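Justification of computing resources. Each target in the renewal requires a structure prediction run like the one illustrated here; the chain below, 379 residues long, is used simply to show the kind of job we budget for.
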Amino acid sequence: MSNNRQNITFASCLVLGVLAMSPAAEATVDFGKKGEPVKLVIGYQPYYTESWSGVVVNGKELWKKHLPAGSTAEFQVGLQGAIIVNAMTGEKQHIGYVGDMPGIVATFRNLPDRGATDIRIVAALGTSKQQCNIFLVRNDAPQFASGQEAVKWMAGKDTSSPHGSCTDRFARLAFKKAGIEPKSYLNQNIEVITTNFRAGKLDAAVIWEPTATKIVQSGLARRAASGEDFDALDGGLLIMLNDLIQQRPDVQRGWLEAELDAQLFLADLKNATEVSQMAEKQTEQIDRKVLWAALYGENSKSAGGGDVRVQLDFIVNERVQGLLDDATAFLNGLPNKPAAAPKIREGGVDDKMAREVLTARKLTSPVGVIKAQPLANFK
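Resulting structure tokens:
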């Protein structure tokens, strides 16, 4: 197994809204017969806090407990979910830890003009209002009494986010609810946003954790608002090739057992130090205190802080389904229509096995809630 501690720049990240469609795989992967060892390749995002159950599955090798003896799991870093979806479309990766937007787009890849690879949402990693939906503002911006006041200040200002991502959906929603239009709303990736804040060329941007906390703790910008101010959810999803689901239900179940173990581990605050240590080992150039704060740390209510950092849903419950409905409609409304319909296709969400696993453990959704902790609790 590889932790993939690579020197990858955020400039290599593709923005979901302009993601080029990959060609269809020429042949179906043979995953073997029930009970046989399996070789899996997993795309995951240690640079997206809401999908850190993948960091735990990787770091603690939880899959070894649940997959047939002799199986292997190779974890490959994706700096953005779009990269993972592309790799899965070509069947180079078999399981993906992604945000809500790329997860939805993946379900439409079985269409002939979109890759013709059947990818399904098999579980929910978690939901939040302050993991992807985070507004940062330049340091010399006024002190705001609330996140809504901060967004109103952005009228006539230069703003940005990676378009087509969960940040984009939130930014457009917040601008609409605040009744404002910025001077510019640029399509910029994380690296460019960071550079522009450093150079004083940007008034505000929407970005996800842990990069949001990294930018703030580096002194380049301030946190100003989040989904807490606009009742806007973001989320993470576990996606899987339908070839794997159909050929190896034993492997699908085993992976979901490991995923449930990981979510329960994340939910236990006694494990916060170990989680941040694993995340540090699987990322580059991010201080462990930043990583800890991104998942567990509290922020002021006036800057979009809330009591719950992440809710670990595991299955596609009513809360997750509502997020999927809203996000799919948003994607379908974009000019290039990353989602080919306003609703996810039938079968695109396939969490039956996850529900069986949850029932067998005598658990209910959500399986845990990570509540915000004072930064003084970091250790």
